[in-house]
Design brief:
Rossmann fold; disordered N terminus; Catalase; metal-binding; oxidoreductase
Length: 754
């Protein structure tokens, strides 16, 4: 893990303590539900609420107007050992309504029943229209320095640390949808700066579907489930989506990103973030530049393969959320670096011929390198998911001094839409007073009353100017670091509903993306288009989208057309002459493996000393071992985290086979949902063979030693790329570890598209 990780010392101390307690290392495998140890009988001795788990955190205890209270975070949680009403009266019973005799009617006077049911009836708030499915975590941002020349924003000054809360999300699905669907991901970061809150509301793709916010309801309506049937959920593989994007061809650049591996990220931890829009930065001298924000994951950018994503949606629909929280619990804290692409602030607001106000365009990093200005570490999970990840409210207009908006027409519409949304979803104008939204800067806004007003405002004159409150509050100037609305000249032009001519180029950057992909990545894009369009009912929509693909690249179009059984149309315009951008491909580098999951197949006859050594080596590599055994409980003195019935390959990044387990008593004698086919003939449990075959098919690293080598031979994968065998378990793991740094054994995946 990176030397700058502030939690490294804490993590090492936890690991050291755990090793002293027991060699089984059970405390180091994440996923323990709570901090208390349960007992078989119901506890009867009153005691205070258990503390949060070590990896959990809560918003700082601040007043509604931003002042530190000095109280511990637990002060916002439940208090005392006894059950009470919402107003603190202790209760004898919460299992029986107050009735007129044991068999009589329930009495209206049962205020506890009414209070309990009323609160339950209102526990759910409206979910977000988009980004409903999400997960959040607390962390800290540390500035490297180097941004002072272009912005006066204090949180970017060298050495400055700022608390943050980050929420990741999918765009299309409801709260109950799966994490691993093909979709854009949100990457929203709330910086609690001492100059006011800064919300960097980013996505994992640098471009958007549309160029103007007035189309936002249209694209969302088109991408959401059909209004007559409410299907399909959390996916774009249906007629209304492809009808829209094939008619609004400005969407084609975003669509090809979504059809690429970027649409199915391996985890939130291995996902880039992009601010999408161009912002204006202003420094202390009042000089301005234009800029785009980038988040670069220190673990690299990695994705699932499509079959993995489909399987996980059924086997573990919470896969990304679980991965994020288990990594934090294990001490493999997710890290990103914040980068800036800087452009001159010219009247044309273009760079290298690219319109910087067009949110469907990127500036290739080869033309404008990303300058790293700070690092983000997520080191605490929520204490209460609803209070934090659900009630957090972001807004692109929450900006500190030194950062301002531009005339990007999509950004301009978002400036209105975000506040308008919170008014309905969070019940009124005081959503900034919810603990997770409370700023860490003093608040004196003269706003009063309204639903859920938590502040107890003093004074009698919430207006300006006044003399009754001594003139308070006073306006701030440059000396007090007031926010700067950059005095950009507004063009004198007629009022029109139109876009600049530069917005008319809808295909050149989609072609740039396609030509920047490796052959295997192109193969995945072809398969994604073929699957998605193959789910459309109307052939006319398929044909129209094929015409869009023909204007991007004839090879792409021909391959998708062949999969659909349709002729490939000719382009209707000249193909753009573009230079590929290597920065857009996910392949070609090795990355840290922190937090990756390594399965170890064992049986009761396994050499436990070797398994212990391998587990220690996995932990030392900041990875997480999962013992997979014929049954739960212990194998010798080691805990089995998965059985053959509960473990599946898709939750693993690599597989080690330390034994050749015979079919367990619960091994299916016939096809079932776990195996999907009759058990193969042979001495090995068929579910182990299935796990090996799936890992091989998904190009994951596989290793074996001892009798485990025979399992690979029976599965037919021995001696193939990405498979390591040997006599020493530790040596085999070392070879597998090197392969995981590549993310996959890419040579194992076919690539028919050049």
């Amino acid at each position: 893990m990176d030397a700058r990780n502030p939690a490294k010392v804490v993590k090492e101390a936890v690991e050291s303590a755990a090793e002293k307690v027991t060699d089984t290392l059970t405390s180091e495998v994440p996923g323990k539900p709570g901090s208390a140890e349960p007992t078989v009988p119901e506890p009867t001795t009153p005691q205070d609420p258990p503390p949060p788990k070590p990896e959990q955190g809560s918003p700082q205890t601040r007043t509604p107007t931003g002042a530190r209270t000095g109280a511990p975070a637990a002060a916002d949680g439940q208090q005392g050992a006894y059950l009470t009403t919402a107003h603190g009266a202790r209760l004898r019973d919460t299992d029986h309504s107050l009735k007129a005799g044991p068999r009589g009617p329930v009495l209206l006077q049962d205020h506890h029943l009414r209070e309990k049911l009323t609160h339950f009836d209102h526990e759910r708030i409206p979910e977000r229209v988009v980004h409903a499915r999400g997960a959040g975590a607390h962390g800290v941002f540390t500035a490297y320095g180097g941004a002072e020349a272009v912005t006066r924003a204090g949180f970017l000054r060298k050495g400055r640390t700022t608390d943050v809360f980050v929420r990741f999300s999918t765009v299309l699905g409801s709260r109950g949808s799966a994490d691993t669907v093909r979709d854009t991901r949100g990457f929203a970061t709330k910086f609690y700066t001492d100059e006011g809150t800064f919300d960097l509301v980013a996505n994992n793709m640098p471009v958007f579907f549309i160029q103007d916010a007035i189309k936002f309801p249209d694209i969302v309506h088109a991408a959401k489930p059909r209004p007559d049937r409410e299907i399909p959920q959390a996916q774009a593989a249906h007629d209304t989506f492809w009808d829209f994007v094939s008619l609004h061809t400005e969407a084609q650049h975003h669509v090809i990103w979504n059809m690429s591996d970027r649409g199915v990220p391996r985890s939130y931890r291995t996902m880039e973030g992009f601010g999408v829009h161009t912002f204006r930065l202003v420094n202390e001298a009042g000089e301005t530049v234009l800029a785009k924000f980038h988040w670069k994951p220190k673990l690299g950018v990695h994705s699932l393969v499509w079959e993995e994503a489909q399987m996980l949606a059924g086997i573990d629909p919470d896969f990304h959320r679980r991965d994020l929280y288990d990594a934090i619990e294990a001490g493999a804290f997710p890290e990103w670096e914040l980068g800036l692409q800087i452009f001159p602030d010219t009247p044309e607001e273009t760079f290298a011929g690219i319109d910087l106000l067009d949110p469907t365009k990127i500036v290739p990093e080869e033309l404008a390198p990303v300058q790293l200005v700070g690092s983000l570490t997520l080191n605490r999970t929520p204490t209460n998911f609803f209070a934090e990840a659900e009630q957090v409210a972001f807004h692109v207009g929450h900006l500190p001094p030194g950062i301002d908006v531009t005339n990007d027409p999509l950004l301009q519409g978002r400036l209105f839409s975000y506040v308008d949304t919170q008014l309905t979803r969070l019940g009124g104008p005081n959503f900034a007073q919810i603990p997770v939204n409370r700023p860490h800067a003093a608040v004196n806004d003269m706003r009063r009353d309204g639903f859920h007003q938590h502040a107890v405002h003093a004074g009698v004159a919430p207006y300006r100017p006044n003399s009754l409150d001594g003139g308070n509050p006073f306006p701030a100037g440059d000396a007090e670091n007031a926010f700067v609305d950059v005095p950009v000249r507004v063009a004198e032009a007629p009022k029109v509903r139109a876009s600049p001519a530069s917005f008319d180029d809808h295909f050149s950057q989609a072609r740039l993306f396609w030509l920047s992909m490796s052959p295997v990545e192109r193969e995945h894009i072809v398969r994604a288009y073929t699957f998605e369009l193959g789910r459309c009912y109307h052939q006319a929509i398929r044909e129209r989208q094929l015409q869009c693909l023909a204007n991007i690249d004839p090879v792409l179009c021909a391959q998708v057309a062949a999969g659909l059984g349709l002729p490939a149309p000719e382009p209707t315009m000249p193909l753009a002459d573009v230079t590929p951008s290597p920065a857009l491909s996910q392949l070609g580098r090795q990355w840290p493996t922190d937090g990756r999951m390594v399965g170890i197949v064992v049986d009761p006859d396994v050499d436990l000393d070797t398994v212990r050594d391998v587990r220690r080596a996995i932990f030392a590599a900041d990875m997480v071992p999962l013992l997979i055994a014929p049954h739960g409980g212990l194998i010798g003195d080691l805990p089995a985290q998965r059985s053959f019935a509960t473990g599946r390959s898709v939750e693993l990044d690599a597989l080690l086979v330390a034994a050749a387990p015979a079919p367990a008593p619960d091994a299916p004698p016939a096809p079932d949902s776990q195996v999907g086919a009759p058990p193969a003939a042979g001495p090995v449990d068929p579910r182990v063979l299935l796990m090996v075959e799936e890992c091989w098919r998904h190009a994951k690293a596989i290793g074996a030693w001892g009798s485990g080598v025979a399992v690979l031979e029976q599965a037919g994968v021995g001696g193939t790329p990405g498979v390591v065998t040997g006599d020493s378990g530790e040596d085999v793991f070392a070879g597998v570890h090197r392969l995981v740094a590549d993310h996959r054994a890419w040579d194992r995946l076919s690539a028919s598209v050049g």
